[in-house]
Design goal:
The complex is a heterodimer of chains A (280) and B (281). Chain A has 2 domains: 1-32, no CATH class; 46-279, MetI-like (MetI-like fold, Orthogonal Bundle), CATH 1.10.3720. Chain A is 76% helix and 3% strand. Chain A contains 12 helices and 2 strands; from the N terminus they run H-E-E-H-H-H-H-H-H-H-H-H-H-H. Chain A has a two-stranded antiparallel ribbon with strand order 1-2. Chain B has helices at residues 6-38, 42-45, 60-66, 70-102, 108-119, 127-137, 143-168, 171-179, 184-213, 216-221, 230-240, 245-265, 267-275. Chain B has 2 domains: 6-61, no CATH class; 69-240, MetI-like (MetI-like fold), CATH 1.10.3720.10. The two termini of chain B are 38 Å apart. Chain B is mainly α and 281 residues long. The longest helix of chain B is centred in the N-terminal third of the chain and has 33 residues, at 6-38. In chain B, 75% of the residues lie in helices and 0% in strands. Classes of the chains: A mainly alpha (280), B mainly alpha (281). The interface between A and B is large, with 107 and 97 residues.
C-alpha cells in the first residue's frame, strides 16, 4: 500500500526527468556520433570527435575557459570570504549591505551584460572614460585582455553574493566561546582566523569552490551578452564555442561532440561534489 | 586580541563599515548607471565627457521601449513561461519530495542522489538536443517547449528544497492526526499542506526569479518574434539599439523591475536559502 503511494508520488517527477533531462543527454551522444544531412542521420563513428580534437579552436577555447574559470574562482572565493568576514563583524546595517550585494544575483545575464557593456563603451562608457588617462585611451573591450577582464569582472560581480552569503552562513556556525578562550590564551587575530575560523569553514569553502568551478566552466549567457565571445575569439570559452558552432555555423554534429566533452568534464566535477556533500 | 579598548572597537567599526560601504557602491554602480542612463535624452547619452546624472531628465527612452514589442509581446511571454513552469515544478516536486521524505525504500536514496546529480549537469550540454528534438516535434517557438524544458530543468532543485522542508515537519504530527481519525488525504490537507506552505513559497520564489531571467534555452529554442521572451528581446535590442543606450537602459530597468520587487519583498527568504547553500544562480 505504502509502496503504491510512494510510486504515485514520485513517478510524475521521474517521468519528466527521463524525458526532459536523461533522454536529451543520451540524444546528444547519439548526435555526436553521426551526421545529419537533409534530415537523414548517418553514423560516422568518432569522426566528429576527431575533427574537434584536431581543431586548434578547441584547445584555444579550453585555454580561455581555464583562464576565465581560475580568475572567476579565485575572485569569488577570495572576495566572497572578505565580504563574509566583514558582514559577520558588523552588527548594524547588515541587511542593507546584504540586499545591495545580492541585487546583481537577481538580475538576468542579459541585463547584466548590457550594463557592463555600457560602462566600457569605447566613447561614452563612464568607466572607460574614467580609466582613459591611465591606459592611454585604449578601448578596453576592443582588446583581448581587456574584454576577458571585463567578462570576468562582470561574472564575479554577478555571482559574488552566492559565495559571500554561503560563507556568512558557515561563519555563523563558529562558536563564539572558542574565540574567547583563544583570546585569554593570547592568540592574535590571524592565529584565530587560521586555527579556528578557517578550520570550521573549510568544508564550505571547498564545496563553494567546486560549485563555482562548475559555473565558471559553463558560463555562457553573460559572456554572450557582454562580448558575444569577441573581440575576435578572445572571450570564446568552450561554452561559447559550443553555442557558436551550433547556432552560428550550424555544425550540430560538432556541437554535439563538444556537448559530450563538456558533459564528461561536468560529470567528473559533479561526482567530486556529491562525494564531498556526503562526507560533509 | 578580543579584549579591545573602546578606541579600538570604534576604529574597527569604522574600517568594517567603510569597506562595506565602498563595496556596496561598487556592486550597485552598474545598476545605478543604467537607471540614470534610462532617464537621459538620446543626445545626452553621447556627450563627452560622459556624465553619471542626466543633464536633463526625460522619459524619452521609456517611450521608445513602450513602442517596441517588449511590453505587449515579450514580457507576457516571459510571464507565461516562468509562472506556468514554476507552478508545475512546485506541484510535481512537492509530491516527489513528500514521497522521498516519508517513505523509505531500498534504492530510494540512490534515486535521490541520481536526481541531485542531474542538477550538476548544466543546460548548455543539452542545448543541441533540445533544439533538434524540438524541431522534429515541431514545437520550437512555443510556450509548450519552454514550459517542458524549464519544468524538467528545475525539478531537481525544487525537490531538494522541498524535501528539506518536509524532513523538518515532525512525523509525529501526522500520526497524531491519524489517531484522531484523519484519513491520509485529510492529513495531507489539514496538516502537511499548511505546514509546508513556507517551503513551497521559498521554492516558488527562487525558481520564478531564475526562470524569468533564463536566457540560453529561450534564445536557442525561440526564433519566432511572437514567441520571444523579454530576455531574448532585450538581447536583440543590444544589436539594434547600438548607441541608443538610453532606450536599452530603460528596457533593462523595465525587465528587471518585477524580479527586483519580488526579491526586495522576500529578501529574508533569499538570504536564508543562500546561507544554507540552497540557491542556484
Amino acid at each position: 500500500m505504502n509502496r503504491k503511494i510512494f510510486i504515485w508520488l514520485i513517478s510524475p517527477t521521474l517521468l519528466f526527468l527521463l524525458v526532459i533531462q536523461i533522454y536529451p543527454s543520451l540524444y546528444s551522444w547519439y548526435l555526436s556520433f553521426g551526421k545529419i544531412k537533409g534530415g537523414v542521420y548517418t553514423f560516422v563513428g568518432l569522426k566528429n570527435f576527431v575533427r574537434l580534437l584536431n581543431n586548434s579552436d578547441f584547445y584555444e577555447s579550453l585555454g580561455r575557459t581555464g583562464v576565465f574559470t581560475i580568475a572567476f574562482l579565485a575572485a569569488c572565493i577570495g572576495i566572497g570570504l572578505i565580504v563574509a568576514l566583514l558582514l559577520s563583524r558588523c552588527t548594524r546595517f547588515t541587511g542593507i549591505y546584504m540586499t545591495i550585494i545580492f541585487i546583481p544575483m537577481v538580475l538576468s545575464e542579459v541585463v547584466s551584460g548590457t550594463m557592463w557593456r555600457w560602462m566600457f563603451q569605447q566613447s561614452f562608457g563612464l568607466v572607460q572614460a574614467f580609466l582613459n588617462p591611465f591606459i592611454n585611451n585604449v578601448s578596453i573591450l576592443s582588446k583581448p585582455w581587456g574584454a576577458m577582464a571585463v567578462v570576468i569582472a562582470a561574472s564575479v560581480w554577478k555571482q559574488l553574493a552566492f559565495t559571500a552569503l554561503l560563507f556568512l552562513g558557515a561563519l555563523q556556525t563558529v562558536p563564539k566561546e572558542l574565540f574567547e578562550s583563544a583570546a585569554i590564551d593570547g592568540a592574535t587575530r590571524s592565529e584565530m582566523f587560521w586555527k579556528i575560523t578557517w578550520v570550521i569553514i573549510r568544508p564550505t569553502v571547498l564545496l563553494a569552490s567546486i560549485m563555482t568551478t562548475i559555473r565558471g566552466i559553463n558560463a555562457l549567457g553573460l559572456i554572450l551578452a557582454t562580448t558575444q565571445g569577441g573581440p575576435g575569439a578572445s572571450t570564446m570559452t568552450e561554452a561559447v564555442l559550443l553555442y557558436r558552432t551550433a547556432w552560428q555555423f550550424g555544425r550540430f554534429g560538432d556541437a554535439a561532440a563538444l556537448s559530450v566533452m563538456m558533459f564528461l568534464i561536468n560529470i567528473t566535477l559533479g561526482a567530486v561534489y556529491i562525494r564531498l556533500m556526503k562526507d560533509h | 586580541m578580543l579584549i579591545r579598548s573602546k578606541g579600538q572597537i570604534i576604529k574597527d567599526e569604522i574600517v568594517t563599515h567603510g569597506l562595506l560601504i565602498f563595496f556596496s557602491l561598487i556592486m550597485i554602480f552598474p545598476v545605478a548607471l543604467s537607471l540614470m542612463t534610462s532617464f537621459k535624452t538620446k543626445t545626452d547619452v553621447m556627450i563627452l565627457p560622459p556624465q553619471f546624472f542626466p543633464p536633463t531628465w526625460t522619459l524619452e527612452g521609456y517611450r521608445k521601449v513602450f513602442q517596441s514589442d517588449l511590453i505587449p509581446i515579450y514580457m507576457p511571454n516571459s510571464a507565461i513561461n516562468a509562472f506556468t513552469a514554476t507552478f508545475l515544478t512546485v506541484i510535481l516536486a512537492s509530491f516527489a519530495a513528500y514521497g522521498f521524505s516519508r517513505f523509505k525504500f531500498k534504492g530510494s536514496r540512490a534515486l535521490q542522489m541520481g536526481i541531485l546529480g542531474l542538477m550538476m549537469i548544466p543546460g548548455v550540454t543539452n542545448l543541441v538536443s533540445y533544439y533538434k528534438l524540438g524541431s522534429q516535434l515541431g514545437i520550437l517557438s512555443t510556450h509548450l517547449i519552454m514550459i517542458l524544458v524549464y519544468t524538467g530543468f528545475e525539478l531537481p532543485f525544487g525537490l531538494l528544497i522541498l524535501k528539506n522542508f518536509f524532513d523538518a515537519i515532525p512525523i509525529d504530527l501526522e500520526e497524531a492526526a491519524k489517531i484522531d481519525g484523519c484519513k491520509s488525504l485529510q492529513v495531507l490537507w489539514h496538516v502537511i499542506i499548511p505546514l509546508s506552505l513556507p517551503g513551497v513559497f521559498v521554492a516558488s520564489l527562487l525558481i520564478l526569479v531564475y526562470l524569468w531571467n533564463e536566457f540560453l534555452f529561450a534564445v536557442t529554442l525561440l526564433s519566432a518574434n511572437e514567441a520571444r521572451t523579454a530576455m531574448v528581446g532585450l538581447y536583440d535590442f543590444q544589436t539594434s539599439f547600438e548607441v541608443a543606450y538610453h532606450a536599452l537602459s530603460a528596457a533593462s530597468i523595465i525587465v528587471l523591475l518585477p524580479m527586483l520587487v519580488i526579491f526586495l519583498l522576500g529578501r529574508k527568504t533569499f538570504f536564508r536559502a543562500m546561507m544554507e547553500g540552497a540557491l542556484k544562480g
